[in-house]
From TrEMBL:
Name of this chain's protein: Glycosyltransferase family 4 protein
Gene Ontology molecular function, alphabetical: glycosyltransferase activity
Top-rank taxon, per record: Bacteria
Keywords, comma-separated and alphabetical: Glycosyltransferase, Transferase
Positions of the Glycosyltransferase subfamily 4-like N-terminal domain: 19-174
Keyword Transferase: yes
Pfam annotation, one family: Glyco_transf_4
Organism: Ornithinimicrobium ciconiae
InterPro entries named in the record: Glyco_trans_1, Glyco_trans_4-like_N
Domain Glycosyl transferase family, first and last residues per copy: 186-314
Keyword Transferase: yes
SUPFAM superfamilies the record matches: UDP-Glycosyltransferase/glycogen phosphorylase
Length: 354
């Protein structure tokens, strides 16, 4: 089987990962190759050279002075991304050696142009409906396509336009190893308003626990205004860590706080925490309840900082071995790869496109 994977172009696929999407795609490429699948990857510049990626931004955006004077010209970054996916799809139009495309980007163009290529397409839906993707899916001939959502919650949000399979995201349980635990709480992920690390800091302070934060500062104004003022002896920011250092940090923590102020489509940090044997204390939003059972975590109503603080002791008292077992059985990369190979096989089965 020869699969082309289209990655999101916004960030390179390399450690330290910009976010869960980049981590997921990196592991998907490697996991498929380990199963003997030939994978051609299209991704953004700066990707891990070991992946042998074709750079999506193949050519510079060459605009005439007349075009640049157009008062309706959109942002150049938007144009570059649009034209890069156009270039990738035009290249695939003439390929006869590819069995299917796995569209793991967040862009509408691969879906809009799916009918122009000779191979079938699997698209993973990582987000709720967007005004770009939704119309493209409505107009698409879905006889040669399959959509996959990263959780049942995400699948339900798309069912007015398609009926996705559900393949829960996976984590590398060999890299995210169980740790001994500790006395501190941890929060990790992109430091942005929608993930609300400031609420995690408030939860820890109310509960009387020390907390450590790690992750990329993706919104500098938010970090300086809402997070930095809450740092101090009992709340430390450790920076953007690679997987090994991050797994060690999580494994040495008493519980992981997961505090999104929106419905996370999945919640990869919770799965990574469970793989380290570290219980989860999170908001009951999005896909989180689908893989964080009561014996591995405590979920409280979204945004209820006071209730979360009251539940910290309960979360830290959960059994670490049970958390690790949950990750191995339900959250592993191997399980995810198995599920995607099943999706690929169904899509390529004779008579599917009839």
């Amino acid at each position: 089987m020869h699969v082309v994977i289209l990655a999101a172009a916004s960030h390179p696929l390399r450690e330290p990962f910009a976010g869960g999407l980049e981590s997921l795609t990196w592991h998907l490429v490697r996991g498929l190759r380990e199963r003997g699948v030939e994978v051609t990857l299209f991704s953004g510049p700066g990707t891990d050279p070991d992946l042998g990626a074709h750079e999506i931004l193949v050519e510079p955006l060459d605009l005439s002075d007349a075009a640049r004077r157009d008062v309706a010209m959109p942002a150049e970054r938007w144009l570059r991304e649009h034209h890069s996916y156009l270039q990738a799809m035009l290249e695939l139009r003439d390929r006869t050696d590819v069995d299917l495309i796995h569209n793991n980007s967040l862009h509408y163009l691969p879906i809009a142009l799916a009918a122009t290529v000779p191979m079938s397409m699997v698209t993973t839906l990582h987000t709720p409906p967007t005004p770009w993707l939704e119309p493209a899916i409505r107009l698409m001939d879905q006889r040669r396509a399959q959509f996959v959502a990263v959780s049942g919650h995400t699948a339900r949000s798309w069912r007015h336009v398609t009926t996705p399979d559900v393949v829960l995201n996976g984590v590398d349980v060999d890299a995210w190893r169980p740790g001994p635990g500790g006395s501190d709480l941890v929060w990790f992920g992109r430091l942005v308003p929608e993930k609300a690390p400031h609420e995690a800091l408030s939860i820890a302070r109310r509960a009387g626990y020390r907390i450590r934060l790690a992750g990329p500062v993706a919104d500098r104004d938010y970090f300086e205004g809402a997070v930095r003022p809450l740092l101090g002896p009992h709340a430390e920011y450790l920076g953007h860590l690679g997987t090994a250092d991050l797994a060690a940090l999580v494994g040495q923590s008493a519980a992981t706080l997961v505090t999104p102020v929106w419905d996370e489509p999945y919640g990869l940090v919770a799965a990574e925490s469970l793989a380290c044997g570290t219980p989860v204390l999170g908001y009951e939003r999005g896909g989180l309840p689908e893989f964080v059972p009561p014996h591995c975590g405590v979920l409280v109503p979204g945004g209820d900082v006071a209730e979360a603080a009251r539940q910290v002791d309960a979360a830290t008292g959960l059994h670490r071995v049970a958390c690790r077992r949950q990750a191995e059985q339900h959250c592993s990369i191997d399980r995810m790869i198995d599920a995607y190979l099943e999706v690929y096989s169904r899509l390529l089965s004779p008579g599917r496109a009839a």
